[in-house]
Every structure is written in structure tokens, then in C-alpha cells.
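Assess this today:

___
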Amino acid sequence: MATEDSPRFDTVDWDEITSGGGREVTKSLVALGASLAGLAALLLYDYVVVPDRTATFAAVGWGYDVTKLDWLLALSLLFVAFYGALPLYRNERMTRYYWKEFKKNRPAVASLVFLAVVFVGGVFGPLVISSPESELLRQFQPPVFMEIPQNYVIECVGERAAGVCRGTWQHPLGTTPDGRDIFKMIVYGMQISMKVGLIATLMAVVIGASVGTVSAYAGGMVDEVLMRYVDIQQSFPTLVLYLLIIYTWGGGLFTMVLLFGLFSWEGTARYVRSNALSKSEEEYMKASRLSGAGTYHTIRRHLIPNTASSIITDATLLIPAFLLAEAQLSFLGLGDTSVASWGQLISVGRDHLSYAPWITLAPGLVLFLTILAFNFLGDALLDALNPEARAEAES
């Protein structure tokens, strides 16, 4: 029997009553805050202490100069670790269930392995492989098991036979018109693609999910205003804005990534809003509100976790879209010529397709496989994380 000191059901502080979670959430927030503070300290060290045109960690013998995109990438990986990997680690039962469902899709498993190779190559490749330098004497070296007429080559690195120059393992994928090794450029392009995909996608997902969730839960005038703004931004041609920025301040990869992230979240907002609207009518949402739980608790504990599958699958579609957009801009000559991105490498080889097709085909094939892998991954994640959607598709 309840006593006079017992709290009523509708006055319970639900933020204190979590499924074994109050202390763990606090530890996570403290760890995240400490990590952000450490990252901010390193950023201040780079921009305040380190002299201009000096490598960030030259004092400890590491000659790599951390760029603005590197700092954004580190921040993105930090949030992915705390809000993606850590929840999976904590909930082992659900993680095992997701993996069991996911591995039923064999193309998706192969895609995951391929994307893991791209990720590892992008992180560690530039640390162990020297940057692709221009060597004019080695222009148009063919890939292994291919050959090119001798008159296109100044100095044949491989074997010469019957007026042709054959490829060698010294340049397994050949070289560009200025003699840069294509294999090295593809490895360095993995890092560029990782930065473009992860940073821009995280920005778009955070903004879009926030707008979509608030719009769905608040409703009324808030929903109307937010959705009308989404309509206005979605109708604005992003390419024109990018051209104006290039003309005014000059373009670059950093500008491109910010533009992708800040002006590509409208579809995510609409997708999350429609999903959140359907979830808000579920019985557990009504029970949460009737039990006295506040708005913040209901959104954080019920609405966002139950729309996470929509957000994750949408992210797997945004990443290849950004990679393809970067390749298209580079092909049109609007990309950053100072970086070895896959799109930039495809653009370099477009004038030499008749006698040196490998310059375009090699990065083009890697880009194609990466986009295909993300599509397979997205389908498998949708099946594993959202069985209801799979059941509706099969019915």
C-alpha cells in the first residue's frame, strides 16, 4: 500500500528512473565532454601556438599538418563513436540480433568488408604510403598486364617490346599525365572521400533529424514554419550558390563539404518527420505522455531511438550522394585541384581516354564499387533495423 511520502505516478522524475542507465549516461557525457575538451585544446594549440606554414605536430617529429577538414573529421568520428559504436557495445543482445539479421544479406557483408578497407586505407594509408609526387619522365606508365605505344611514354619503367611499353608492379595501376602514381592517388583519395562523406553526412543528419523531430512532435505553427523553410531551401539551386562562393571567395574542399552539409538536409528532415509522426501515435508514446514524462524525456528516450533506423538508413544514402556530387563537380572543373580525390583523378584522365583509359577507369571503378557498397549496406540495415518496413515491402 502506498504511503503519503510515495510519489504519485504522474509526478515521478523519469530522468532518474532509467533501465540501468542513469550512471552510464553520466559517464558517457563526462567522457564525451573530456574528449571534446581535449580536441579543442589540440585545435587551439594548432592555431595559436604552432607558427604558420609549420606542421601541427612537428615538435614531436610528425610532419603531417592537420587541416580544418581533419579537425572536422576527428569531431565526426568522436560523435560516431559515442552515439553509434558505444550504444551497440552496451546493448549486446540487440547488437547480436542486428548482426544475425544483417549477415543474411551476403552482398551487404561483402560491401561492409570493402567499406572497411576503404576506411582503414583512408585513415592509415597516407601514414605509410608517400604522397604521389609528379615525375614527368614517368608519364602514362600503363598498369600491370597492360601496354601503351612507346611514343606516348618518355621513359618506360616496365619492359619494352615491339614498340610498346608494358606495365610493372612499381606502378600497379599506372601513372597520370604528370607521372603521379594512380594507386597512391586512390589511397589518398580514400581519405578525401571519407572526409567528404562522413563530415557532410553527419552535418546533414544532425540538422535534418533535429528539424524533423521537432517539427513532428511540436506540430501546429512550429511544424508549418519549419516545413515551409524546408520547401524554400530545397528549391534553391545549391550549384548556383557554390558558383557564387567560388567567384567571390574561391572554392575548395572545405567549402564544398560545408555546402553539402548545410544545404542537403531537407530530405532527411522530411523523412524523419514522416517517420516520427507515425511513431508519435504509437501506444508507447501515448503511455509515456500519460504517465507524466516530460517532452524532453519522451523525445530522447522514445521518439529518437525509435526513429534511429530511419536516420541510419538515410545516412547510408547520403554518403554516396555526396561522393558522387564531389566527383561531378571535379569532372566539371569546379573541384579542389590541390587534393587527390577520386573525382579529381577522373577529371585528369578525361582527355586521354583513347590511349590511357586507366587514368579514369581505375578511380571510376573504385567510386562505383563504393557507391554500390553503400546502397547494399543501406538495404541490409533497413531490413535488420526496421523489420516492419521489410514486412510491408514483402506484403
Notes: The domain at 183-395 is CATH 1.10.3720.10 (MetI-like fold).
